[in-house]
Here is the input.
Amino acid sequence: RKEVEQDPGPFNVPEGATVAFNCTYSNSASQSFFWYRQDCRKEPKLLMSVYSSGNEDGRFTAQLNRASQYISLLIRDSKLSDSATYLCVVNRPSGTYKYIFGTGTRLKVLA
Amino acid sequence: SQTIHQWPATLVQPVGSPLSLECTVEGTSNPNLYWYRQAAGRGLQLLFYSVGIGQISSEVPQNLSASRPQDRQFILSSKKLLLSDSGFYLCAWSRGADTQYFGPGTRLTVL
Here is the structure.
């Protein structure tokens, strides 16, 4: 089993739609979780950290389910500019500084 | 504010030639530094990370090496490039196990 798994997509959605991505992780001792966005041929950029209680930033909502070992990202009112690959990132347990990246979920928002 | 630089932006090298990629961080001290490689259409693979000057941890045995001669400088090297070394090389920094921030990357093509 991979340490971090994501559905590669692509998810093709119309503008204005709500779309959700899930990501599962295998190490129950992982402590930090993030969603990054990567545009084609560019570096990944932090979209949001994921907190235990869930958190929201505008149209984006991230949630963590420790019992089932998954994190989710919900995008409401999708914009054309949301088209990108979304990477799930989990850090290994404390004492190391290693981050495990999922292979990403590709989103295409269609006009 | 912190910034991270990488150069060169693109590089085309023949098989068997040496490699040196440089990464520098500004605006912070004693960062954790990372080198990743992203092959075409694939996820990020952690190559090396460093928690301090001269301290390098290797994740994947291969013909690459890394050095950290100064606090905010991280260098990726190879004595002889292979075709399989082609990819998008990303440097990142973090403070402890907090968020990682990426440089703009170097796109390497080995012919």
Chain A has a mean pLDDT of 92. Residues 13 and 77 of chain A are 10 Å apart (CA to CA).
